[in-house]
Amino acid sequence: MDAFPDIPLEAWRPTKNTLHLYCQIVGKIRLAMHPRMNHWWHVPLYVTPAGLSTRTIPFDGGNFEIEFDFHRHEVVIRTSSGKNEDFALFDGLTVADFYSSLFKNLAKLGIEPNIRPIPYEAPSTAPFPEDTKNKSYDKEFVERFHQTLVTVDHILNEFRGRFCGKSTPVHMFWHSLDLALTRFSGKRVTPREGAGMVEREAYSHEVISFGFWFGDDKVPAPAFYAYAAPEPAGLADEPLSPATAK
Question: What distance in Å separates the CA atoms of residue 127 and residue 189, rounded to the nearest whole number?
């Protein structure tokens, strides 16, 4: 398979937006139910051979996992008791219907998350149970999306192994739909003035972060990125390699 299949932003934007919102719903369940970890490490999703997963989340009956399977195009919920539920992903499945199906299937397993059912920094502001506008699911582009994630996950994990200090796992932050890896210097820093709760926890220490996302209106193409927080003086003037980087 092509390690980096063609995935032009405009061609799959409706599917990207819908998938982004699906991921936010699942991610908010992990946020609500997983024990808190430093720097919001309890929040992201993770790349799997099939798609994206919450990994293990505890609940009163044991633990469970929610996985997007982008080969079979379905969502699978697995529990430690051996009971599973699933439902199909298809073009026309609204965010509202996805939300309803997910929570109904969780309830069958005795899992009852309590989330704020509204998007966070997403391409829609409609509450999840009311969003009937976002419903595009192009299976070809979803598969390209997954193949790209598999490639980038491999690259970032290999890169992660070169650093012996504190580092995040390679994980997907569902609020921005980017796959990211962050290295910590170990130095605590004073949060910038005006920083909110999310930023204060994420950047409580000096970091350099690396990642990949699928583009937006400012950068309308898939791209790798890196940034430092706080940013050292003069960093933006340093020469880049390769020459096509900017």
Answer: 36
| 213 in Cβ contact with 178 (< 8 Å) | yes
3-state secondary structure of 206: strand
List the domain boundaries for the chain.
Answer: 9-130, 148-237
State the pTM of this model: 0.95
Quote the tokens at residue 240: 């880049």
Pair 65, 78: CB distance under 8 Å: yes
Cα 232-234-236 angle, rounded to 5 deg: 95
Each residue of 179-233: pLDDT tens digit?
999 999 999 998 888 888 888 888 899 999 999 999 998 889 999 999 999 999 9
158 Cβ contact list (under 8 Å, min separation 6):
none
Helix (H, G, I), strand (E, B) or coil at 192: coil
Nearest Cα to 145, choosing from 55, 15, 25, 27? 15
What residue ranges in the chain does DSSP mark as E strands?
46-47, 51-53, 57-59, 62-69, 74-79, 84-88, 171-173, 178-188, 205-213, 223-229
